[in-house]
Fold this protein.
Amino acid sequence: MRMARLPLFPKLFLTFLVLILPLVTLSMIVNVRSERLVRDQITSAAQDKLRDYLHSLEGDFGTLVTLMQQYVLDDDFNNLAYSSVILTDEQFTFMVKSVQRKLLILKNMSPYVRDAFVNLPALDRKISAVSYNELPPEEAAALNTMVDLYESPFTRYDGRLWLSLPVPNSNPVGRGFTIALELSNEALLASLGSLTVSGDGGALLHDGELGWLLASGDMPSPREQTLAFLQSGASDGEPALYAEGKERYYAFHQTSPVLGLSLAMFLEEKSLIGPLRQYAAWLWSLSIAAVALVLLFSYRLYRMIHTPMKRLVGAFRSLESGNLNQQLKAETGDEFNYLYHQFNRTVNRLRELIDEVYVQRYQVKAAELKQLQSQINPHFLYNSFFNLYRLAKLRDNDKVIAFSWHLGDYYKYVTKNADQVELEQEVAFCRSYAAIQSIRFGDHIVIQFGDIPEPLRRLTVPKLFLQPLIENAYHHGLEDRADKGLIDITFSRRETCAIITVEDNGESLDEAAIQQIRSLLEEPERPVDSEGLRNVLQRIRLHYGEQASLTADRSPLGGLRITMTIPIKEASV
């Protein structure tokens, strides 16, 4: 059912509803986009945290590996490993202390190192930074496991991680000595606590096979399912949504190919975007309340309008039946008081007219002047705002500024309270119009304005008499042209006449079309579709007389040429 056929109350309700729906919809869209933005920002921050943490570990352990490789060639280590039997007690003690000092340097280079030591099979002893004792055989065997120092360099043993470098690294492995570092699980665990970005959750560092792992914070439970999720579904890149019962977690995962370690982070979804979703619930509640308020307000307004309107309609029906004694008395001081008063005056006037012997006849003018001001083309207005929207969306601020400036000049001139202007002002307005069109068409259509002879600059002309000719060239001559279009506008004076030509290089104009335009200009009163040319012709003839004319022929450029001839007097220049 069309809205025009609806009663007043549904119209009011639908009108107010249409007004608030965009605001509610916009609020919903803003909330959804805010949720997405918060999620993206937290996701990006979490991934950056993971990458930075792993890069920090790679830097720390890379430095340690380099120093360990240098110690392999150190004389003190080699002398203890291969020449201890020939050393005096003093030399032996000196070398042990020297080795301990170097191991202490190695231990203190990173907060993640719990102990640095060298295992000497020849002495059946382990020399650490602070001790000199035996090493259990099973630990010694674990230390001598060959690993790639640049990919997965760590050795797992009894819930601990070691970084070891046996010499020699071929059979028999480690028979000379083995330099090793034991990592501090406590220090690593403390560093994991700093990874939380926002909300509730935890971090987990593991060796890929989950044979060694450290977990900090609030991890999803049960833990076994979490570890199974990491083994089966976790991969580097975009976060995965991990559900555990009613709780939902965002799982982030990064792997260091240099260390052979993987880092995972779990963030609880409700702590990240819970407030936004709570806001969305409030927004829905407010939206429902707003619809209810609109319904009540519409009904109240309907009653305020309907009751006095019903009285007025009843009075008109009584008047229609011939009751000229009908009078309305206003009970309020609102607008209906004015309507009632006018109705009473109308009834009184009708009685006067009916009582008159002679009813005065009114004459209608035989001809009316055409509008001195052209109507604003709604398509041009729409296209202008669409182009402005497109430029703003592309963030082309320079063109937005230029377009807005020219559009402002255009409508300032159109709405100017003047029937006549100087030719120079009219041409300046046309330049603004052309600038607007150039932003729309770009280099596809070029417009050229010739110089105005000095005697014609102050010529008084009807406002908006030239722009329709330029618009006609754009839309009928060049808009669908495949290659570059050209519009040329020239001004000249011939004796007592001003000559203005508008021509283009359009290709779609044949002789039949030119003849049709000539017929239009010869019979301007005949109804046609082209209102622009006819309007211009009638206006200049009303202003300058029948000597003013428009003629159409083919331009040397290939398209249409419109020539305007305006008689001028010296006083008007």
Q: What stands out?
A: Residues 142 and 157 are 7 Å apart (CA to CA). The chain has three domains: 3-23+282-350, 24-281, 378-572.
